[in-house]
Write a structure and sequence with these properties.
With 638 residues, the protein is an alpha/beta fold. It is built from 21 helices and 29 strands. The protein folds into three domains: 221 residues, Roll (Luciferase, domain 3); 163 residues, Rossmann fold, CATH 3.40.50; 125 residues, GMP Synthetase, Chain A, domain 3 (2-Layer Sandwich), CATH 3.30.300.
Length: 638
């Protein structure tokens, strides 16, 4: 009988809580770190050494690619080599120093992913300047806060974002010494900035300044701040997550060690399509790894609705961001033969690698899926909200590439757990601990989660060498987040028998209803979200009410199918007002009132973050009148 594969090492036993402290589960590490963390290369201890060493090894390799838009048409990818990028980075760094930037100074970068974004970032690394990304999807309110809170003196900005910085509502802009546009500024914007006392530069003007005023590199130390990444937050002001050079460099080294365990090696010919915001740690660390390996990164041309065109033009070997991949695959579901799907899945379940499980099924059906993703894709990574088991299984069988889930936060510098390719036991889970951190679960008594129970469940706590050092200027929140040396993520995990973690709930979204019953809102949203007619759902309750209500975004295609079967001919908005459909949705066990919505929760109305996490406070404000009316109607029926 085959013994079960174990994917993490238990290095410390759990223990019962004492003196009011919660119980904690065993401590787990990656198998590669069972006897302690692997030694780090002292010559690869900062992001600058990672980049500069790659320039020495791969000077002629393609590094950064972009598409020019001429007369409204998007052209082919154009590339800069590692040496060309390096030379430009030196000029940008010299220009920053010549403009008054001193080591330790904070430099903002505001705009969509592009080569200039990366060159500004690397220039910061060359001169011990802290790079502060500004979400290109955030409005002037958050940008105003971050510029003031981080005390940003210089900012690089995309041309279409300049007006937001010069908006009167963005009062903190007035503290800026210089503004560098990724391209060039209009005469109007130049004049407006000048009135505010801000020196402006086009990208080429700034390069020229650097060429004329060369400065010596001031290479960072491992403990220097590399970046302050502000998390968008679901409520309140953004939090500044401080990541040092050593933290990011260690993360990249850990990915190197992990990837080296597998048969399919990364090569300099690998290509990553970057469209997830560089203001997120996930995209930033992926790109750092690609640069470390001398591989290529191509940037989307700025329109997510036309991402498919970028995929077909670039033909990437690596994509991160499952939701966009699913949008490409959805129309192909009808082409997939059920028998072929089941046949290939059965062989994968027996331990066969995806490429050997059924070449016939790949040839007859699934090569069409591969073609939709550019034809060269080797790895598809999900690093946001955990995928459902059904979706992950579907992708593993049909995409003809490795599909891996990971889990992490800005505070963990990217993934703190990572799955294994071609291991079907990882379906629905987020993997085992990454190489340079360890993990344990902590008891959450109010929610009934016990790390010493069967199965072990509790709040996911992480510590190690890839954890952030502090929340910038917020020692109180830093202390709250670190207890006994462990960072508390707020996510609820379940440890499977083979040492693999599954995310099942969220601690912070626990509320107590008026009758004293605790309810986990995200758990309910995940349960109700699998209903075919539901595209998205937000569950609301408060401590003064005994009932939960919800806003349900209808799945347009499935809602219209229901309407056809029920004899209704109406638009989606009209269906939302049908009492019969509203009554049908109240079949939810715990939710007593439902408001139907035709429009998805979006960033335009500030209802979700850039990573599509629900902003619960904003949702409440937006739907307050409807919710109050719904509660009144429910009370009248009691």
């Amino acid at each position: 009988m085959e013994t079960m594969k174990v994917f993490s090492a238990k290095v410390e036993d759990g223990r019962e809580g004492q003196d009011g402290k919660p119980s904690v589960g065993p401590v787990y590490r990656n198998l590669l770190a069972k006897q302690g963390y692997p030694p780090l290369d002292p010559d690869m201890s900062t992001t600058w050494t990672l980049f500069s060493s790659s320039v020495e090894k791969y000077p002629g390799n393609r590094m950064l690619g972009w598409r020019k838009i001429i007369d409204g048409k998007v052209g082919p990818y154009i590339w800069k080599t590692y040496k060309e990028v390096y030379d430009e980075v030196l000029h940008v760094g010299s220009a920053l120093r010549a403009s008054g930037a001193e080591p330790g100074c904070r430099v903002g970068i505001y705009g969509a992913n592009c080569p200039q974004w990366i060159m500004a970032m690397e220039a910061c690394g060359a001169h011990r300047l802290a790079c502060v990304p500004l979400y290109d999807t955030l409005g002037p309110g958050a940008v105003n806060y971050i510029i003031d809170h981080a005390e940003i003196d210089f900012v690089f900005v995309q041309d279409i974002k300049v007006k937001e910085l010069l908006n009167p509502n963005c009062r903190s802009t007035q503290r800026l010494k210089a503004m560098v546009c990724f391209t060039s500024l209009t005469e109007e914007d130049n004049a407006k900035a000048s009135q505010m006392g801000i020196k402006t530069y086009s990208w080429n003007e700034f390069l020229r300044t650097g060429k004329e005023n060369p400065q010596e590199i001031s290479a960072p130390q491992p403990f220097d701040i590399c970046t302050i990444m502000y998390t968008s937050g679901t409520s309140g002001d953004p939090k500044g997550v401080v990541l040092t050079h050593e933290t990011i460099a260690t993360f990249v080294n850990g990915v190197d060690i992990f990837m080296d365990q597998f048969e399919d090696k990364m090569t300099v010919d690998d290509v990553y399509l970057s469209f997830l915001p560089l203001a997120h740690s996930l995209d930033r660390t992926i790109e750092e790894y690609f640069f470390h390996r001398g591989a290529s990164v191509g940037y989307y041309h700025g329109n997510l609705k036309e991402l498919r065109d970028d995929i077909m033009e670039l033909k990437p070997t690596f994509l991160a961001g499952i939701q966009k991949a699913l949008q490409e695959l959805n129309p192909l579901r009808k082409w997939i033969f059920d028998a072929l799907y089941k046949h290939k899945l059965s062989w994968m379940d027996r331990g066969y690698k995806h490429k050997y499980a059924s070449p016939l099924a790949d040839l007859l059906a699934f090569r069409k899926v591969k073609a939709k993703l550019g034809g060269r894709l080797r790895l598809l990574l999900s690093g946001g909200a955990p995928l459902s088991s059904e979706v992950e299984e579907f992708l593993r069988v049909t995409s003809c590439c490795f599909v891996v889930q990971g889990y992490g936060l800005t505070e963990t510098c990217g993934a703190c757990t990572i799955g294994f390719p071609d291991e079907m036991c990882f379906v629905g889970a987020v993997g085992s601990p990454a190489v340079y951190n360890e993990l344990r679960l902590e008891e959450v008594p109010d929610m009934g989660y016990d790390p010493l129970g069967n199965p072990p469940c509790g709040e996911v706590c992480v510590r190690g060498k890839t954890i952030f050092s502090e929340y910038y200027k917020n020692p109180e929140l830093t202390r709250e987040s670190f207890k006994d040396g462990w960072f508390h993520t707020g996510d609820i995990g379940q440890m499977l028998p083979n040492g693999v973690v599954k995310i099942i709930d969220r601690k912070k979204n626990l509320i107590k209803l008026s009758q004293g019953e605790y309810v986990a809102l995200e758990h309910l949203e995940n349960v109700y979200g699998v209903t075919p007619i539901v595209d998205d759902v937000w569950v609301y309750g408060n401590s003064f009410k005994s009932m939960l209500v919800s806003i349900v975004v209808l799945h347009e295609e499935n809602a219209k199918k229901w309407a056809d079967l029920s004899g209704y001919t109406a638009s989606l908005s009209e269906l939302c007002s049908l009492s019969k459909l509203q009554y049908h949705m109240r079949g939810f066990e715990y939710i007593k009132g439902v408001i139907l919505e035709a429009q998805p929760f979006d960033m335009e109305r500030d209802l979700v973050t850039a990573t599509l996490k629900k902003k619960r406070n904003n949702l409440l404000k937006y739907y307050q009148a409807e919710i109050d009316a719904l509660y009144r109607n429910l009370a009248a029926k009691i």
